[in-house]
Protein backbone atom coordinates (compact mmCIF):
# COMPACT_ATOMS: atom_id res chain seq x y z
CA UNK A 1 0.00 0.00 0.00
CA UNK A 2 1.38 3.44 -0.95
CA UNK A 3 1.71 6.30 1.50
CA UNK A 4 -1.33 8.22 0.20
CA UNK A 5 -3.50 5.14 0.63
CA UNK A 6 -2.09 4.60 4.14
CA UNK A 7 -3.05 8.18 5.00
CA UNK A 8 -6.74 7.65 4.16
CA UNK A 9 -9.29 7.87 6.97
CA UNK A 10 -12.02 5.59 5.60
CA UNK A 11 -14.57 4.61 8.24
CA UNK A 12 -13.12 6.84 10.96
CA UNK A 13 -15.29 9.26 12.95
CA UNK A 14 -14.26 12.85 13.67
CA UNK A 15 -15.61 15.94 15.34
CA UNK A 16 -14.50 19.47 14.51
CA UNK A 17 -15.41 22.31 16.87
CA UNK A 18 -15.83 25.67 15.19
CA UNK A 19 -16.45 23.46 12.15
CA UNK A 20 -19.15 25.63 10.61
CA UNK A 21 -16.75 27.98 8.83
CA UNK A 22 -13.14 29.06 8.34
CA UNK A 23 -10.29 26.79 9.35
CA UNK A 24 -12.63 24.28 11.04
CA UNK A 25 -14.73 23.89 7.91
CA UNK A 26 -11.61 23.42 5.81
CA UNK A 27 -10.26 20.72 8.14
CA UNK A 28 -13.67 19.00 8.30
CA UNK A 29 -13.81 18.97 4.49
CA UNK A 30 -10.32 17.45 4.24
CA UNK A 31 -11.17 14.73 6.78
CA UNK A 32 -14.33 13.90 4.82
CA UNK A 33 -12.46 13.87 1.48
CA UNK A 34 -10.14 11.34 3.13
CA UNK A 35 -13.09 9.11 4.06
CA UNK A 36 -13.94 10.11 7.64
CA UNK A 37 -17.47 10.71 8.91
CA UNK A 38 -17.65 14.14 10.53
CA UNK A 39 -19.63 15.90 13.26
CA UNK A 40 -19.70 19.67 12.71
CA UNK A 41 -19.76 21.16 16.20
CA UNK A 42 -20.49 24.88 16.50
CA UNK A 43 -22.50 27.50 18.38
CA UNK A 44 -23.85 28.70 15.05
CA UNK A 45 -26.14 25.77 14.27
CA UNK A 46 -27.58 27.26 11.05
CA UNK A 47 -24.11 27.60 9.50
CA UNK A 48 -23.04 24.22 10.96
CA UNK A 49 -26.05 22.55 9.33
CA UNK A 50 -25.19 24.15 5.96
CA UNK A 51 -21.58 22.95 6.23
CA UNK A 52 -22.65 19.44 7.29
CA UNK A 53 -24.98 19.19 4.27
CA UNK A 54 -22.24 20.43 1.94
CA UNK A 55 -19.71 17.93 3.32
CA UNK A 56 -22.20 15.02 3.20
CA UNK A 57 -22.15 15.40 -0.60
CA UNK A 58 -18.61 13.97 -0.46
CA UNK A 59 -20.20 10.60 0.42
CA UNK A 60 -19.60 10.40 4.18
CA UNK A 61 -22.03 10.70 7.08
CA UNK A 62 -22.22 14.09 8.74
CA UNK A 63 -24.14 15.63 11.63
CA UNK A 64 -24.35 19.20 12.93
CA UNK A 65 -24.37 19.62 16.72
CA UNK A 66 -25.09 22.93 18.45
CA UNK A 67 -22.51 23.23 21.20
CA UNK A 68 -20.92 26.02 23.19
CA UNK A 69 -17.46 24.59 23.90
CA UNK A 70 -17.29 26.55 27.18
CA UNK A 71 -20.37 24.78 28.54
CA UNK A 72 -19.58 21.41 30.17
CA UNK A 73 -23.15 20.15 29.85
CA UNK A 74 -23.22 21.03 26.12
CA UNK A 75 -19.89 19.24 25.59
CA UNK A 76 -21.11 16.10 27.38
CA UNK A 77 -24.29 16.11 25.27
CA UNK A 78 -22.18 16.56 22.12
CA UNK A 79 -20.13 13.45 23.00
CA UNK A 80 -23.32 11.46 23.77
CA UNK A 81 -24.80 12.48 20.39
CA UNK A 82 -21.62 11.46 18.52
CA UNK A 83 -21.51 8.06 20.25
CA UNK A 84 -25.24 7.48 19.69
CA UNK A 85 -24.87 8.38 15.99
CA UNK A 86 -21.53 6.81 15.07
CA UNK A 87 -20.69 4.44 17.97
CA UNK A 88 -17.09 5.67 18.36
CA UNK A 89 -14.74 8.65 18.03
CA UNK A 90 -11.36 8.44 16.29
CA UNK A 91 -10.44 12.09 15.62
CA UNK A 92 -11.14 15.21 17.73
CA UNK A 93 -10.35 18.62 16.27
CA UNK A 94 -10.66 21.18 19.06
CA UNK A 95 -10.57 24.27 16.91
CA UNK A 96 -13.20 26.82 18.05
CA UNK A 97 -11.60 30.11 19.03
CA UNK A 98 -12.15 33.86 19.27
CA UNK A 99 -9.97 36.96 19.45
CA UNK A 100 -10.56 40.24 21.28
CA UNK A 101 -8.13 43.02 20.40
CA UNK A 102 -7.78 45.21 23.47
CA UNK A 103 -4.71 46.72 25.10
CA UNK A 104 -3.43 44.91 28.20
CA UNK A 105 -3.85 48.00 30.38
CA UNK A 106 -7.46 48.71 29.38
CA UNK A 107 -8.92 45.28 28.60
CA UNK A 108 -11.67 44.41 31.05
CA UNK A 109 -11.42 41.29 33.20
CA UNK A 110 -14.63 40.04 31.54
CA UNK A 111 -13.03 40.34 28.07
CA UNK A 112 -9.87 38.57 29.25
CA UNK A 113 -11.87 35.74 30.82
CA UNK A 114 -14.06 35.35 27.71
CA UNK A 115 -11.02 34.72 25.47
CA UNK A 116 -9.47 32.28 27.93
CA UNK A 117 -12.81 30.54 28.36
CA UNK A 118 -13.34 29.80 24.65
CA UNK A 119 -9.73 29.32 23.53
CA UNK A 120 -8.27 27.43 26.50
CA UNK A 121 -11.11 26.09 28.66
CA UNK A 122 -13.09 25.10 25.54
CA UNK A 123 -10.12 23.12 24.22
CA UNK A 124 -9.69 21.49 27.64
CA UNK A 125 -13.36 20.48 27.88
CA UNK A 126 -13.64 19.12 24.33
CA UNK A 127 -10.27 17.34 24.28
CA UNK A 128 -10.94 15.83 27.72
CA UNK A 129 -14.37 14.56 26.58
CA UNK A 130 -12.72 13.03 23.50
CA UNK A 131 -9.86 11.53 25.52
CA UNK A 132 -12.24 9.74 27.90
CA UNK A 133 -13.79 7.89 24.96
CA UNK A 134 -10.50 7.32 23.12
CA UNK A 135 -8.67 5.93 26.17
CA UNK A 136 -11.40 3.28 26.52
CA UNK A 137 -11.03 2.48 22.80
CA UNK A 138 -7.22 2.30 23.13
CA UNK A 139 -6.73 4.68 20.19
CA UNK A 140 -7.49 8.17 18.98
CA UNK A 141 -6.03 11.42 17.69
CA UNK A 142 -6.71 14.83 19.22
CA UNK A 143 -5.74 17.88 17.15
CA UNK A 144 -5.96 21.26 18.85
CA UNK A 145 -5.84 24.55 16.95
CA UNK A 146 -3.30 26.81 18.65
CA UNK A 147 -1.66 29.72 16.76
CA UNK A 148 1.67 31.32 15.93
CA UNK A 149 0.41 33.79 18.59
CA UNK A 150 1.31 31.07 21.10
CA UNK A 151 4.93 31.56 20.00
CA UNK A 152 5.27 35.27 19.18
CA UNK A 153 3.59 38.55 20.12
CA UNK A 154 1.69 39.80 17.08
CA UNK A 155 1.95 43.48 16.18
CA UNK A 156 0.61 46.10 15.87
CA UNK A 157 -2.77 44.96 17.24
CA UNK A 158 -2.93 44.33 20.99
CA UNK A 159 -4.11 40.79 21.87
CA UNK A 160 -2.57 39.68 25.16
CA UNK A 161 -5.43 37.36 26.15
CA UNK A 162 -5.38 35.63 22.75
CA UNK A 163 -1.59 35.17 22.81
CA UNK A 164 -1.69 33.81 26.37
CA UNK A 165 -4.58 31.46 25.55
CA UNK A 166 -2.77 30.01 22.53
CA UNK A 167 0.53 29.51 24.39
CA UNK A 168 -1.51 27.66 27.00
CA UNK A 169 -3.15 25.46 24.34
CA UNK A 170 0.31 24.37 23.14
CA UNK A 171 1.33 23.39 26.70
CA UNK A 172 -2.03 21.74 27.45
CA UNK A 173 -1.52 19.70 24.27
CA UNK A 174 1.96 18.59 25.34
CA UNK A 175 0.78 17.77 28.87
CA UNK A 176 -2.10 15.61 27.65
CA UNK A 177 0.18 13.96 25.06
CA UNK A 178 2.64 12.89 27.76
CA UNK A 179 -0.10 11.68 30.12
CA UNK A 180 -1.89 9.68 27.38
CA UNK A 181 1.16 8.45 25.43
CA UNK A 182 0.87 4.80 26.53
CA UNK A 183 -2.91 4.67 26.01
CA UNK A 184 -2.81 4.94 22.21
CA UNK A 185 -4.27 8.45 22.35
CA UNK A 186 -2.14 11.11 20.63
CA UNK A 187 -2.46 14.87 21.12
CA UNK A 188 -0.91 17.47 18.80
CA UNK A 189 -1.52 21.09 17.90
CA UNK A 190 -1.47 23.11 14.71
CA UNK A 191 -0.28 26.72 14.96
CA UNK A 192 -1.38 28.70 11.92
CA UNK A 193 -0.08 32.12 10.99
CA UNK A 194 -2.48 34.74 9.64
CA UNK A 195 -5.15 32.94 7.61
CA UNK A 196 -7.74 34.72 5.46
CA UNK A 197 -10.91 33.65 7.30
CA UNK A 198 -13.92 35.65 8.53
CA UNK A 199 -12.22 35.96 11.93
CA UNK A 200 -9.79 38.31 10.17
CA UNK A 201 -11.80 39.52 7.16
CA UNK A 202 -15.04 40.36 9.04
CA UNK A 203 -13.22 42.56 11.57
CA UNK A 204 -12.59 45.91 9.84
CA UNK A 205 -9.82 46.82 12.32
CA UNK A 206 -7.95 43.58 11.49
CA UNK A 207 -8.63 43.69 7.75
CA UNK A 208 -6.98 47.12 7.61
CA UNK A 209 -3.79 45.62 9.06
CA UNK A 210 -3.29 42.99 6.35
CA UNK A 211 -0.76 45.08 4.36
CA UNK A 212 1.31 45.59 7.54
CA UNK A 213 1.21 41.86 8.35
CA UNK A 214 2.18 40.99 4.77
CA UNK A 215 5.14 43.38 4.99
CA UNK A 216 6.33 41.51 8.11
CA UNK A 217 5.80 38.10 6.55
CA UNK A 218 8.67 36.38 4.66
CA UNK A 219 6.15 34.85 2.26
CA UNK A 220 4.33 38.21 1.95
CA UNK A 221 0.71 37.05 2.06
CA UNK A 222 -1.99 35.53 4.29
CA UNK A 223 -2.40 31.78 4.33
CA UNK A 224 -5.53 30.03 3.05
CA UNK A 225 -7.58 27.60 5.15
CA UNK A 226 -6.88 24.82 2.62
CA UNK A 227 -3.15 25.19 3.34
CA UNK A 228 -3.82 23.61 6.77
CA UNK A 229 -5.66 20.57 5.40
CA UNK A 230 -2.76 18.18 4.77
CA UNK A 231 -1.29 18.51 8.27
CA UNK A 232 -4.72 17.81 9.79
CA UNK A 233 -5.19 14.68 7.65
CA UNK A 234 -1.67 13.50 8.54
CA UNK A 235 -2.26 13.99 12.27
CA UNK A 236 -5.68 12.36 12.13
CA UNK A 237 -4.51 9.12 10.54
CA UNK A 238 -2.35 6.14 11.38
CA UNK A 239 0.82 7.27 9.55
CA UNK A 240 1.37 9.74 12.42
CA UNK A 241 1.29 7.03 15.12
CA UNK A 242 4.73 8.15 16.44
CA UNK A 243 3.73 11.83 16.44
CA UNK A 244 2.45 13.14 19.76
CA UNK A 245 3.05 16.26 21.84
CA UNK A 246 4.11 18.18 18.74
CA UNK A 247 3.08 21.64 17.62
CA UNK A 248 3.08 22.32 13.88
CA UNK A 249 3.75 25.95 12.95
CA UNK A 250 2.34 26.74 9.51
CA UNK A 251 2.86 30.46 9.07
CA UNK A 252 4.80 31.19 5.86
CA UNK A 253 7.92 31.74 7.95
CA UNK A 254 6.34 34.55 9.99
CA UNK A 255 7.66 33.43 13.37
CA UNK A 256 11.03 32.22 12.06
CA UNK A 257 12.88 35.46 12.74
P1 LIG B 1 -13.81 31.86 12.44
O1 LIG B 1 -14.27 32.98 13.30
O2 LIG B 1 -13.89 31.98 10.96
O3 LIG B 1 -14.55 30.51 12.88
C1 LIG B 1 -14.65 30.15 14.23
C2 LIG B 1 -15.87 29.26 14.42
O4 LIG B 1 -15.90 28.92 15.82
C3 LIG B 1 -17.20 29.96 14.10
O5 LIG B 1 -18.00 29.11 13.30
C4 LIG B 1 -17.83 30.20 15.47
O6 LIG B 1 -19.26 30.15 15.46
C5 LIG B 1 -17.24 29.06 16.29
N1 LIG B 1 -17.22 29.34 17.73
C6 LIG B 1 -16.78 30.48 18.35
N2 LIG B 1 -16.97 30.36 19.68
C7 LIG B 1 -17.50 29.15 19.91
C8 LIG B 1 -17.91 28.45 21.08
N3 LIG B 1 -17.83 29.00 22.30
N4 LIG B 1 -18.43 27.21 20.95
C9 LIG B 1 -18.55 26.65 19.71
N5 LIG B 1 -18.19 27.25 18.58
C10 LIG B 1 -17.67 28.50 18.67
O7 LIG B 1 -12.29 31.59 12.91
P2 LIG B 1 -11.07 30.85 12.18
O8 LIG B 1 -10.18 31.88 11.62
O9 LIG B 1 -11.56 29.74 11.33
O10 LIG B 1 -10.33 30.27 13.46
C11 LIG B 1 -10.44 28.91 13.88
C12 LIG B 1 -9.35 28.64 14.90
O11 LIG B 1 -8.08 28.95 14.32
C13 LIG B 1 -9.44 29.52 16.16
O12 LIG B 1 -9.05 28.77 17.28
C14 LIG B 1 -8.43 30.63 15.88
O13 LIG B 1 -7.95 31.21 17.06
C15 LIG B 1 -7.37 29.83 15.16
N6 LIG B 1 -6.46 30.65 14.35
C16 LIG B 1 -6.93 31.47 13.37
C17 LIG B 1 -6.03 32.22 12.64
C18 LIG B 1 -6.49 33.16 11.54
O14 LIG B 1 -5.67 33.99 11.11
N7 LIG B 1 -7.71 33.07 11.06
C19 LIG B 1 -4.66 32.13 12.90
C20 LIG B 1 -4.22 31.28 13.89
C21 LIG B 1 -5.13 30.54 14.62
Strand order of the largest sheet: 3-2-1-4-5-6-7
Portion in helices: 40-55%
What's the CATH superfamily, by name? Answer: NAD(P)-binding Rossmann-like Domain
Under CATH, the topology can be stated as Rossmann fold
Give the structural class: alpha/beta
- Could you say how many structural domains there are in total? 1
Helix/strand layout:
Layout: H1 3-6, E1 13-17, H2 22-33, E2 37-42, H3 45-56, E3 62-66, H4 72-86, E4 91-94, H5 109-137, E5 140-145, H6 160-180, E6 185-192, H7 198-201, H8 204-207, H9 210-216, H10 229-236, E7 247-250
Parallel strand pairs: 1-2, 1-4, 2-3, 4-5, 5-6, 6-7
The structure holds nicotinamide-adenine-dinucleotide.
Short description:
With 257 residues, the chain is α/β, with parallel strands linked by helices. It is 45% helix and 15% strand. The chain has a single domain, classed as Rossmann fold.
